[in-house]
Amino acid sequence: MKKPETQSALDKDLDRIGYIEDAAGTAARRLVAPGLSFVFIMVCALAAWQFVGGGVSGSMLIAAAALGAYMALNIGANDVANNMGPAVGARALSLGAALAIAAVCETLGALLAGREVVNTISSGIIHPQDLANPHAFMLVMLSALVAAGVWVNLATWIGAPVSTTQAIVGAVAGAGAAAAGIAAVNWTTLGGIAVSWVTSPVLGGILAAVFLAFVRNVTIYQPDKIAASRVWVPVLIGAMTGVFSTYLVMKAFPASGLRLPGAMLAGLVVAIVSWLLARPYVRRQARGMENRNQSVRRLFSLPLVCAAALMSFAHGANDVANAVGPVAAIAGVIRSGHMVTQVEIPLWVMIIGAIGISLGLVLFGPRLIHLVGQQITKLNPIRAYCVALATAVTVILASALGLPVSTTHVAVGGVFGVGFFREWETQRVGTRLSVMADGAGKGKRLRPIRNREEQKRRFLVRRAHFMTILAAWVVTVPAAALLGAGVLVALSFLLG
Question: What's this model's pTM, rounded to 2 decimal places?
């Protein structure tokens, strides 16, 4: 009679051991990403040590290289979600494929075009001549890296996609003000960034909604959807490639000397070539498709993947300076012996930024990719395409007007714009005539909303995510500035 009791006790002990092993395995998996990140940061510090000698200045450059690697990891974890999130949410790409494409395109953009991006981190945010000496300038840049990295890391942890550009700008401004007073801050630049808080996401949202309404009207709401798609999808592909070509010429290759008219002409040429190439492709893809909305959406999958890849390339070209700009500024001071107004980023510094962004995306990016692509509002290839196109157009318009904008703000604003447009279409209008596939002109009306509870159930944008992201946007610059000032005071005290 005692044997079953003994067996039962043994089973319980084995179950406890199994639970402990599972818990240990889970904890170990959670430590893999931070562990790899720490190894990468240490390798970058050792790489910097190979290029500098001893002394205080050399030590500061080694610390800056490690902090630049930390900032690059955070940019990859937070910022790249805006490029790949819509494609993953629309199921045009799997998460693994999105991570691979983004990592390659981010690295290529940073290494091939990142050098040509005009970098205002060292002299555009603060006036270097107002600082006491080169040592104070290097201390400001070091403090900015710490503050911006910590803030972006915190935003990633709470699940809020923020602007890394605004984080590093706010951190430099705060550290510069703490070092030399508020007069050292370039308030004109900060004022332009404040304007972009409102204008860029709103404009991106409006354009995404307009594009979605247009695409639906010329394809989805036509009696013969496939015939309409054969005409319009190549046109939209040409528009996308033309807009992105203009974007890349203006933002990633400013040294080409082409201003907006020349960049638009180059984009037009690319658009025409793409349209001609896309026509036979779309015709083959559409062959045998049923006259359904889902068939039309499938035709947008390839354009969406191309748009996400191009956005990642452009992002790597532009935002790598947010991580390595201060590192390059410190390297420039050490090399020249005085404060610099023009920063030339060494190759080894660029490699730190490029690899760091890609590694941060692979290790920590999936969470925010799911948030941007799936949790804010439901996306399909058509909606995601409209978000990508609106993002590129908004950045081009802002560049022509001289407004500093954040790709993060524009892309997330586009996602919200698509969601709110769909809400307006289904809730405010209340009815929508949906043309049936047989082309007979018959339609069905959506049931009108009868009470507030039903209206809430039909919300297509999650308000909790909207408020969290909005709050993170509003406080990014002041929070990063306060952190930058605090870090500078602490470092000044520690270093005497």
Answer: 0.75
Give the residue numbers spanning the domain of 94: 9-224+291-495
- Identity of the amino acid at 327: V
Based on the number of CB atoms within 10 Å of its own CB, is 28 exposed (0-12), middle (13-18) or buried (19 or more)?
exposed
Q: How far is CA 225 from CA 235, 242, 294, in A?
A: 15, 25, 10
In a domain, 92, yes or no: yes
Could you report the per-residue pLDDT of 18-51, keeping only the tens digit for each?
656 555 455 445 677 888 889 999 999 888 887 7
* 371 — pLDDT class (breaks 50, 70, 90): low
Alpha carbon of residue 210 to chain centroid: 22
Q: Look at residues 62, 38, 29 and name the one whose alpha carbon lies nearest to residue 48.
A: 62
With a cut of 50, say whether residue 454 has pLDDT above it. no
Burial of 359 (0-12, 13-18, 19+ CB in 10 A): buried
Q: Is 385 helix (H, G, I), strand (E, B) or coil?
A: helix
- Position 307 in a domain: yes
Contact (CB, 8 A) for 90 and 388: no
What pLDDT, on a 0 to 100 scale, did the predictor assign at position 468?
74
**119 inside domain:** yes
- Candidates 112, 114, 113, 131; CA nearest to 122 is 131
DSSP for 292-360 reads SHHHHHHHTHHHHHHHHHHHHHHHHHHHHHHHHHHHHHHHHHHHHSS--SS----HHHHHHHHHHHHHH
Q: 444 φ, ψ to 5°?
A: -130, 140
The answer for residues whose C-beta is within 8 angstroms of residue 432's C-beta and 6 or more apart is 425, 426, 445, 446
- Among 126, 142, 120, 143, which residue's Cα sits nearest to residue 57? 142
Number of domains in the chain: 1
Structure tokens at 255: 């040294």
Structure tokens at 201: 């996401």
Is 270 within a domain?
A: no
Residues 6+ apart with CB under 8 A from 139: 60, 175, 179, 488, 491, 492, 495
SS (H, E, C) 111-153: HHHHHHCCCCCCCCCECHHHCCCHHHHHHHHHHHHHHHHHHHH
Sequence letter at residue 277: L
Q: Which two tokens stand for residue 117?
A: 């991006």
